Amino acid sequence: MNIGRWAAAVATALALTASGLTYGGHPGGDDGAGIKSITPITTISTYGQKVSAVAVEYGETVNPRELDNSTFSVQDTIYNFRFNPVEDLPKLTDRKVTSTYTNDAATTRADHRSVPGRYVIVELDPEQNAGWTVVVSKCPTFLCTVKVNQDLPTRVVQRKNVHGRPGLGIGKGPVLAKAAPGTSRKVTEKAVNLLADEFRYGSYLSGGMVLPYHYHLPANYDPAKKYPLMVVLPGHGMGWDGDNPLVQVAADIPATAWLRPEWTGGTEDVIVLAPQHQRVGGPAEADLLVKMLDQFLKDFAVDKRRVYATTVSYGSQLLWNAFAKRPELFAGGLVTGGFAVNAEQAAAIAAAEIPLWVTHGVHDHLLNINLARNTRTLLRNAYTARGKTPEQIDTLLRYTEWEDAAFSLPDHHAAYGPTYEYENGAILRWLLSQTKA
């Protein structure tokens, strides 16, 4: 193209842009009808899953140069099932926008940088106490279960014009959707749940009892290899109630932390198995659990020298019973905010020399700190009875009490919070370092 023809083309492009026409000759701008969909994106943080971003879809590729963190505003619920009555679920607060960029899919990018695409990704402050997705499910007794909310109250406002890709790379480009600061839009699509959506469902049936579970295999899972297995035993409220699948993965960090180098400090591939107990009592559930584990070890490439269990609250009862029933299965355990072991269970654990780390909040309002202290005493006594020295016992039994200041949210029963956050995953790395002889 010669200089004269190029200049004419540029002039035409600028004129079309200024007039609000698209490069196909169609009127630009449509009072917001250019938004095709809004998809919530969730991430699991220490204390559970929350909306961490939204993906706003347009009919054409978006010009990222005309976007900034004030192009959109997002509101989300203040409700947190640990602290708020369910009546607070529709109460919204402004979310802090931390990054705005374009993408070719309704998901976030680790580099937070734009690539050509029809989606605008609006990332939100992950530390803000808002946008939680887990809600009360059922209250068959005075104790309730929880579930992942499928009807999220997240709202999005487009405050500035959103432009398409400009012709010849010049100008702002056509208006794909005009600013509509007075229009608050609901999400229109099912949530994209980062990492949680990668878990697969399974169930085990024995003696008329069913044990539903979810599990996660490494991205490049190879049946010819052997992988450590982390069994995650959830709290009472995450038990199966017929209407709350996957909540044992979403409600708090213990299931997904083992898959994330930012939590473990390492890149080793780990298989995660998260059963969802039926809340019928520790012994019966533990019996079903070890039977399911035996089958799981046959079906998947697990390193049988490295099978671990980690617990939240009620899950400790399953761990104590399972460790006492089948101690040879396990290479180590991590108990957070749990119930006390009994003398018989302590004796079986000491005989097998299963390494344990027990943590508890000093001001746990649901399970008193004395339960953890009793566990420590009974286990130390069991080891002493077997002739172990105090130094040897300290190697096999680690114990930590958390003061209130250690909790990033003030639920002092949730001892997994400071436990998993401790020194960038030091306790997690300790557990993964245990290996049966």
Quick rundown:
With 437 residues, the chain is of the alpha/beta class. 23% of the residues lie in helices and 27% in strands.
Major sheet description: 8 strands, mixed
Radius of gyration: 26 Å
Q: Which percent range fits the helix content?
A: 10-25%
The CATH homologous superfamily of the largest domain is termed: Alpha/Beta hydrolase fold, catalytic domain
Adjacency order of strands in the biggest sheet: 14-15-17-16-18-19-20-21
Put simply, the count of helices is 10
Question: What is the assembly state of the chains in this entry?
Answer: single chain
- Distance between the ends: 75 Å
DSSP strand count: 21
Helix and strand composition category: alpha/beta
Average residue-wise pLDDT: 91
- Residue ranges: pLDDT <50 for 5 or more in a row? 1-32
Number of domains: 2
CATH architecture descriptor name of the largest domain:
3-Layer(aba) Sandwich
- Which CATH class of the largest domain is shown? Alpha Beta
Give the CA-based shape. elongated
CATH fold node name of the largest domain? Rossmann fold
Write structural notes for this entry:
It is elongated, with a radius of gyration of 26 Å. It is of the alpha/beta class and 437 residues long. It has ten helices and 21 strands. The protein has helices spanning 3-19, 247-250, 261-264, 282-299, 315-325, 343-352, 369-385, 390-396, 416-421, 426-432; strands spanning 35-45, 48-58, 72-77, 92-95, 97-103, 119-124, 134-136, 146-148, 155-158, 162-163, 175-177, 185-186, 192-193, 200-206, 209-216, 227-233, 271-275, 302-312, 332-336, 356-361, 397-402. Helix 4 crosses helix 5, helix 5 packs across helix 6 and helix 6 packs across helix 7 (369-385). It has two domains: 27-193, Immunoglobulin-like (Sandwich); 196-432, 3-Layer(aba) Sandwich (Rossmann fold). The model is unreliable at 1-32 (pLDDT under 50).
